[in-house]
Each structure stands twice: as structure tokens, then as C-alpha cells.
């Protein structure tokens, strides 16, 4: 295994929900009568949860995951999470999935949750930056840490979560929209530049049309002298196929699942920064906030086992996508020095924008992120995780040496999530 830590508990992972926690530690207590009844201690057994819920009528909550179906790493993990909650509650709590954004589009989930069409749902904040001003200032900071097959990625994920959960402006952002945040942000692995032809030098970027998905992507592409094109990722395959665009920025998971790597098999990563990282958010409405306290704690505590599985699923996606890329005759290369310099200038510009923001205390957030990243990178390294930065080498060895993030995920829960446990 890539870590010397032995798996000590069964991990139920999900990449659509990583942790349920209350705003400033008061999850589910905003409505009259919400959070009623006695709670249970963290670490309670299934029997103790079920005893605490003995008088509760069975409930079914509508849960809109991020996945299109129960297939694949994400869907399987989300289904496992739903099954785990149901089993732990002795059948008292059922999460009924609405796969494939069947109830609301990713940019309408918050509204659908506030009005009760969804009880728990996954939103993508980059699609509507005007709704998530404070979160989008964090997104501006996301390219500042290096991209890699997994170690810097899991450290960045933990660091961003650490900062977001303890930023008052983000808490207020959700509360103002009438929802409880159950996960303020969960940044996935860094974006890749996927192109129809190799693009590595500053000259290569000149005249290129590159699909972007966020304001930070746009700033980066313009900084490299290319032309950003804004479009939904669902339109990207056809645009690449028809040469309407030359490249797209996005996660390798999206590139694999939506076929981008078939038509854009030339992948480029920076040396000391990242193209950017996009987060999902999880919000909840009255169906969750009106649950008895023990029921809220059960859902929350279930994520003590989910952190590692979520991170491991993202890592598995990277390995799968790189393997697929090799099978399709593609390649993965690094930016040349002149393009790396231009990217760093763009990344510095995004940081300056956050420092000057009035949506949050940007200087405080940036400093806390720097400290949190160093902390979580150190934790990963202490636990035996090593990252050479070679994506192909990583993917080639993954089947025989899969990543075990059990201990890292448990520490994420205990140090970031647990202080916000419903009480």
C-alpha cells in the first residue's frame, strides 16, 4: 500500500457528500423544534443510535447526488453512503436519490433545497458566482498549490475545507439563501488542460480557443495569451470534435467520463502551480434541519468513515483516466518555462484579487490557506504518502498499489468536521 497506515475501519466513501456539519456548529437547529431530543456521543454504536431513534417515525429524505447514476466510482460511493445511513439508523432514515440532476440543475440546487423540492443536494458554485461571492474568492486561491497525481491534491482539499468551514462570510452566504450548508466546499483534483494538439509553450497558446468553466479559469487563459470560451462542460465534446475549440480545462474524471480524452488526448499540467480546482457544495433544507438531534448526529457521524473513501475515489479516477489516455495514444506533459512563468503571473493576480475583495477578509483567508496547506501536506507525508508527480508512473502502479487514505480521512473528520457536530 502507498501508506503504512493499516485500514482500521470500514470506509464508506462518497465524492458528492464528504461531511455533514452545521453552520458554526449548529446544524439543523435553525427551525423551531429542530434538533429536539437527546443526542448521542460521537463514536456511538449502531445500537446506541437506534435506541436514541426508537420513538422517531421513519423518514425519507430526497437526496440529489452529484453523479449521473449509481455506476462508477462516484455513484457507487454515493450509493454506499446512502445504504450506510439506512443501516446505521435501523431503517429509520432513508436517503432517496435523484440521480442525474433529475429535480434541479446544478446551479438551482440551493433554491430547490430552500423550497423543499430537495432535502439534501449537491450544487456547483462556479456556475453561479454571483450567489457565492465568498466561495469564489477561495476558488481564486485554488491554483496556488501544485498539481500532482494525489498527495498535493488531498492536502489542498483538506486545507480548503478547513478554511471554508471557519470563514464567517461563507456561513452567512448560505444562511442568507435559506439553507444549511452541510459541506461548504469540496475541491476535487486540479484541472488538466486537454487539447486536440500539444500545447506546452507560450507560443502554442497564441490563438487557441480554450473552454473555461469559472472566472479564475478565464483569467488564467487570458494570462497565457489564449482566448477563453465559456460553455457548459456537456457541450465540450462536440466543440472539440468539430474544432470549434482547441482545448478544455477540467478534471481528468470529467475528461474520461464525457469522452473528452477521445478527441483531446494531449494533456498538460503546470510545474509548480495548478490550472485551478473546482468545488462542489452540499446544502440541506427543512427535511434535514427538522430531524431529531440524534438523527442529525447519525448522518453527520457517518462521514467519519467517508472522508477516505471520497478522496480515494478521486484518486482512482485519476489513475483510470491516465490509463485510458495511454490506451488512446495520448500523452501527459508539463508546461514549458515561459508558459509556467505566465501562469504564475496569472495565479498571483488571482490572489491579489482575493486580497482586495470585500466579499470576505481575503488576506486572512489566504494566510489561513497557506498555513492549512502546509499542515495537511505535512500530515500526508507523515503518514507515508509520497508523490513523484509522474502521472503515468502513478497510474501504471495503481492496480497493484492502491492508495489508502483511511488515517488521513479520519484526521480530516476529527480536526475539521467534528468541532461542528450538531449539539
Overall description:
By secondary structure, the protein is of the alpha/beta class. Helix content is 44%, strand content 13%. The protein has 18 helices and eleven strands. The chain has helices at residues 46-52, 72-88, 109-114, 133-141, 151-165, 168-176, 202-205, 215-223, 236-241, 252-257, 260-263, 286-289, 293-302, 307-327, 337-355, 362-382, 391-398, 406-417, and strands at 59-64, 93-97, 120-123, 180-187, 192-195, 209-212, 227-230, 247-250, 266-269, 279-284, 331-334. The strands form two sheets. Strands 7-6-8-5-9-11 form a six-stranded mixed beta sheet, sandwiched between helices. The chain has a five-stranded mixed beta sheet with strand order 2-1-3-10-4. Strand 1, helix 2 and strand 2 (93-97) form a beta-alpha-beta unit. Mean pLDDT is 88; it is low at 1-33.
Provide a concise account of the structure shown.
By secondary structure, the protein is of the alpha/beta class.
How confident overall, as mean pLDDT? 88
Question: Biggest sheet: strands, sense, closure?
Answer: 6 strands, mixed
Q: Given the structure, what is the number of helices? A: 18
**Percent of residues in helices:** 40-55%
Instruction: For the record, give the distance between the C-alpha atoms at the N and C termini, rounded to a whole number.
Output: 38 Å
Main structural class: alpha/beta
Sketch the topology as an H/E string, one letter per element.
HEHEHEHHHEEHEHEHEHHEEHHHEHHHH
What does the overall shape look like? Answer: globular
Find the count of extended strands (DSSP E, 2+ residues). Answer: 11
Rg on CA atoms, Å: 21 Å
Q: Give the uncertain stretches in residue-range form.
A: 1-33
Estimate what percentage of residues fall within beta strands: 5-15%
How are the strands of the biggest sheet laid out side by side? 7-6-8-5-9-11
Amino acid at each position: 500500500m502507498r501508506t503504512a497506515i493499516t485500514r482500521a475501519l470500514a470506509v464508506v466513501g462518497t465524492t458528492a457528500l464528504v461531511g455533514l456539519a452545521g453552520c458554526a456548529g449548529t446544524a439543523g437547529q435553525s427551525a423551531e423544534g429542530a434538533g429536539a431530543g437527546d443526542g448521542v456521543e460521537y463514536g456511538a454504536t449502531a445500537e446506541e443510535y437506534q435506541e436514541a431513534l426508537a420513538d422517531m417515525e421513519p423518514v425519507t429524505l430526497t437526496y440529489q447526488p452529484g453523479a449521473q447514476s449509481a455506476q462508477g466510482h462516484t455513484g457507487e460511493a454515493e450509493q454506499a453512503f446512502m445504504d450506510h445511513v439506512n443501516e446505521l439508523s435501523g431503517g429509520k432514515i432513508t436517503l432517496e436519490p435523484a440521480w442525474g440532476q433529475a429535480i434541479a440543475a446544478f446551479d438551482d440546487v440551493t433554491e430547490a433545497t430552500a423550497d423543499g423540492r430537495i432535502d439534501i443536494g449537491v450544487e456547483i458554485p462556479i456556475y453561479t458566482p454571483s450567489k457565492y461571492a465568498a466561495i469564489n474568492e477561495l476558488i481564486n486561491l485554488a491554483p496556488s498549490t501544485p498539481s500532482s497525481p494525489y498527495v498535493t491534491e488531498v492536502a489542498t482539499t483538506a486545507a480548503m475545507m478547513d478554511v471554508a468551514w471557519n470563514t464567517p462570510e461563507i456561513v452567512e452566504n448560505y444562511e442568507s439563501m435559506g439553507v444549511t450548508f452541510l459541506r461548504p466546499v469540496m475541491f476535487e483534483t486540479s484541472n488538466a488542460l486537454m487539447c486536440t494538439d500539444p500545447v506546452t509553450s507560450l507560443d502554442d497558446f497564441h490563438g487557441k480557443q480554450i473552454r473555461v468553466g469559472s472566472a479564475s479559469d478565464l483569467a488564467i487563459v487570458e494570462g497565457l495569451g489564449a482566448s477563453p470560451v465559456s460553455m457548459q462542460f456537456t457541450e465540450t465534446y462536440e466543440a472539440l470534435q468539430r474544432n470549434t475549440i482547441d482545448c478544455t480545462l477540467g478534471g481528468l474524471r470529467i475528461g474520461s467520463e464525457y469522452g473528452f480524452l477521445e478527441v483531446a488526448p494531449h494533456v498538460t499540467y503546470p510545474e509548480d502551480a495548478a490550472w485551478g480546482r473546482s468545488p462542489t457544495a452540499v446544502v440541506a433544507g427543512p427535511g434535514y434541519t427538522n430531524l431529531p438531534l440524534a438523527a442529525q448526529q447519525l448522518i453527520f457521524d457517518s462521514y467519519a468513515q467517508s472522508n477516505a473513501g471520497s478522496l480515494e475515489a478521486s484518486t482512482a479516477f485519476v489513475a483510470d483516466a491516465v490509463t485510458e489516455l495511454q490506451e488512446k495514444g495520448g500523452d501527459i506533459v508539463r508546461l514549458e518555462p515561459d508558459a509556467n512563468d505566465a501562469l504564475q503571473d496569472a495565479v498571483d493576480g488571482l490572489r491579489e484579487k482575493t486580497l482586495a475583495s470585500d466579499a470576505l477578509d481575503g488576506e486572512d483567508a489566504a494566510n489561513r490557506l497557506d498555513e492549512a496547506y502546509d499542515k495537511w501536506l505535512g500530515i500526508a507525508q507523515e503518514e507515508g504518502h509520497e508523490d513523484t508527480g509522474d502521472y503515468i508512473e502513478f497510474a501504471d502502479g495503481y492496480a497493484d498499489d492502491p492508495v489508502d487514505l483511511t488515517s488521513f480521512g479520519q484526521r480530516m473528520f476529527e480536526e475539521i468536521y467534528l468541532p461542528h457536530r450538531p449539539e
